[in-house]
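Anyone up for a design puzzle?
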């Protein structure tokens, strides 16, 4: 995958097919969606709160990263677009970091202003919505090889915005994401 990172990989697709069925009685669109195995696990974690899926997601990601063999110093999750009491991506990267015996830095890259939920925007709107949204604590990641991880990759707008910040901070980024 190309982007503002040095090397990017996609672990899996989130959805293998989705068919529009129409609108429900409240005017909300309805879909018949088929997810990949990993996509279903991620859906269960993010939208159903199923904590039991963290370990299998982390094992899958950890094995993928081990096979890829990037040289890494730290894992950095993409800041969440939607505030939640518990961030599912943070739970995943904590488990991946533990499996790979790598530190996880969840504070050096931060979201500093709110955005609309990005999944509801097209690519151009996402890019516009992400201008000036993130900041990085420059010295925390300087000269480190960073694995940026996001749980869903639809357009790449968030990872591109974060990777540009990371590069400006003289960090050596490596990037990965699920789909």
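Challenge accepted. My sequence:
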């Amino acid at each position: 995958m190309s982007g503002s990172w040095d090397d990017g990989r996609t672990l899996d697709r989130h959805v293998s097919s989705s068919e529009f069925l129409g609108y429900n009685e409240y005017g909300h669109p309805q879909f018949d969606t088929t997810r990949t195995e990993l996509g279903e696990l991620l859906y269960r974690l993010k939208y159903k709160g199923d904590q039991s899926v963290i370990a299998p997601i982390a094992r899958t990601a950890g094995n993928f990263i081990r096979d890829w063999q990037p040289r890494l110093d730290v894992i950095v999750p993409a800041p969440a677009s939607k505030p939640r009491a518990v961030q599912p991506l943070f739970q995943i990267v904590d488990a991946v970091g533990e499996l790979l015996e790598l530190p996880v830095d969840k504070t050096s890259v931060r979201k500093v202003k709110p955005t609309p939920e990005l999944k509801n925007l097209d690519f151009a709107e996402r890019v516009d919505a992400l201008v000036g949204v993130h900041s990085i604590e420059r010295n925390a990641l300087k000269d480190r090889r960073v694995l940026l991880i996001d749980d869903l990759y639809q357009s790449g707008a968030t990872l591109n915005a974060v990777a540009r910040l990371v590069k400006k901070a003289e960090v050596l980024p490596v990037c990965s994401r699920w789909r």
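A detail worth pointing out: The first strand starts at residue 8 and ends at 10.
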